[in-house]
Every structure is written in structure tokens, then in C-alpha cells.
Design goal:
Length: 104
């Protein structure tokens, strides 16, 4: 597989933040919030994380793949295309829309 950009599989992401913590350049940022799930009748209520934002700053990323290897839910994968050049550093910070995760 070509080590180009990294794609987010948003449905698989549990907002555990392992990718952000393990990244050697700290190029990944994410935010989430807790929501309460309504389980089957008689079961205790449970909470789970809901992903709000997920950003990779390609100006900092060194394309090592540590985030992909460490993700316990396989929510990150190599995408074949390289990241396109940009005219400013701010344009190299890609959010959920550019990473293939869609938007909310």
C-alpha cells in the first residue's frame, strides 16, 4: 500500500484518543462528547463517546503510520493519494470532511 494520506472511517472511531496520544508529532487533534444510550428495557443506561471533530495537520505529519497501527478499532487507514500541496499552512489541517469521514 502506498503511504499517502490517511483516511478516517468515522463509523469505526470511538474517540478513544489513542491515535492522538501515540502520534510522535502530535499532528492529530480530536474532540468528542458523551451521550447516554437508551438500552433495552430493564438494562442500565450507558454512555458512549461521540466524535465531534477530527483533524490531521499534514504540515506536522511525518507519515509514519503509528496512528493506523495503534488504532484498536481500525478507524484509520492508508489512502492511496498523497496530500495535495497548499498555499498556506492552515490549508494543510484536514478535518473529517477531507479525511473521508463525512460531516455531522
Amino acid at each position: 500500500m502506498i503511504h499517502g494520506s490517511i483516511a478516517l472511517i468515522e463509523d469505526a472511531c470511538t474517540s478513544c484518543m489513542i491515535c492522538a496520544r501515540e502520534c510522535p508529532t502530535w499532528c492529530i487533534t480530536l474532540t468528542s462528547h458523551m451521550e447516554q444510550m437508551v438500552p433495552a428495557p430493564g438494562a442500565r443506561p450507558r454512555t458512549h463517546n461521540v466524535l465531534d471533530t477530527f483533524t490531521i495537520d499534514w504540515a506536522l505529519c511525518m507519515y509514519c503510520g503509528v496512528c493506523i497501527e495503534q488504532c484498536p478499532t481500525d478507524a484509520l487507514e492508508w489512502a492511496g493519494a498523497h496530500v495535495a500541496p497548499a498555499s498556506s499552512l492552515a490549508e494543510l489541517a484536514h478535518g473529517r470532511e477531507q479525511l473521508g469521514g463525512g460531516g455531522a
